[in-house]
Amino acid sequence: MRAFVLKSYAHPSQISLTTDYPEPRPGPQDVLVDVYSGGLNFFDILQCQGKYQNQPPMPFVLGTEFAGRISANSPIPKGCKLKPGDRVFGAGQGAFAEKLTAPWTSVLPIPDNISYDEAAGLFVTWPTSYEALVGRAQLKPGEWVLVTASAGGVGIAAVQLAKALGAKVIAAAGSQEKLDVSKRYGGADFGIDYTKPGWQQEVLKITGGKGVDVIYDPVGLIKDSLKCIAWKGRALVVGFAAGTIEKLPLNLVLLKNISIVGIHWGAYTKNDRDRVPEVWQELIALLSSGRVKPVVYSEVFPLEKLPDGLVAIEKRQTWGKAIVRIRQDDSVKARL
Ligand SMILES: NC(=O)c1ccc[n+]([C@@H]2O[C@H](COP(=O)([O-])OP(=O)(O)OC[C@H]3O[C@@H](n4cnc5c(N)ncnc54)[C@H](OP(=O)(O)O)[C@@H]3O)[C@@H](O)[C@H]2O)c1
């Protein structure tokens, strides 16, 4: 099969497609999946270079997020309700290949109104943003939310979800193009270029001097954003895309009467297992209703162009989810 196999660590621009790699063999709790689309993540770039917290032994196939069909010859482990031919999305090592194995507990059916390209970027970003806003920040209708990196993978999901939950959203991003994306595909009410000094004053002006009730920050801009947080506001620590782990003077937390709240979605399967199906049930209902819709970057990369996609993420050029397409979606007509 065709796959991006790593035999030594390399920068993503240096990797190439292997055309004759053996199909993976499922373990006792795994299903085998024909991969149609793979979702690109910043951590793929790190894993490629041996810099990620989770490094499989060599050789390994790159990629984690995927969408596809349960293979005709897949085993179906006890308790798994999926069957061969089902359209699914999920996470498992080796997504940038024609086939992968994944634990059946990390594989979910794709709602009928969602394509493979859209589903390939769902598994990590959407539950992160949903649980951050609902479970952690306890967002209420009518509240103000500021989303930083609002056109990025988790950011655009947060913008859409906050709107669907009845909030007023201020999108903050690094270019006019990304602010336009945040409004067009996310439904953001306002857009702010956070590369401009004093951008927090704009946020205060928009909110009539009150500030935002919730800050959703995957960049590492909590300290800067606290200049425009409201009394009793909640600041969500989602990630550090800018590359630096922030330090915060705690007097700000006291003086502004605010909460700093963390979200680590990946740890829920270990620490809060019961919450995972609840989040997915609520999210799938929202996705199926069409009230929220995954956003795919305008250039969908064919599998062999994966390096271009990863380099585009590294250069901060992409918005929404960057996707590689591995097979054509033969089910589109059937679903129309
Ligand atoms: N807590 C969790 O459970 C969880 C789950 C998923 C992801 N995350 C984290 O969330 C962060 C964002 O993930 P994502 O999938 O949304 O990534 P993404 O799609 O690549 O978006 C990241 C955005 O961050 C902004 N950014 C600001 N400074 C940057 C820099 N120096 N280098 C690169 N980007 C920079 C860029 O937007 P602008 O150009 O608009 O500035 C970029 O588009 C990552 O750190 C990731 O690890 C956390």
TrEMBL record:
Q: Which InterPro entries match?
A: ADH-like_C, ADH-like_N, ER, GroES-like_sf, NAD(P)-bd_dom_sf, Quin_OxRdtase/zeta-crystal_CS, Zn-ADH-like_protein
Q: Which Pfam family, giving just one, matches this sequence?
A: ADH_N
Residues annotated as domain Enoyl reductase (ER) = 10-324
Q: Which GO terms describe its cellular component?
A: mitochondrion
Q: Which GO terms describe its molecular function?
A: oxidoreductase activity; zinc ion binding
Xref: Gene3D superfamilies: Medium-chain alcohol dehydrogenases, catalytic domain, NAD(P)-binding Rossmann-like Domain
Q: What is this protein called?
A: Alcohol dehydrogenase
**Species this protein is from:** Heliocybe sulcata
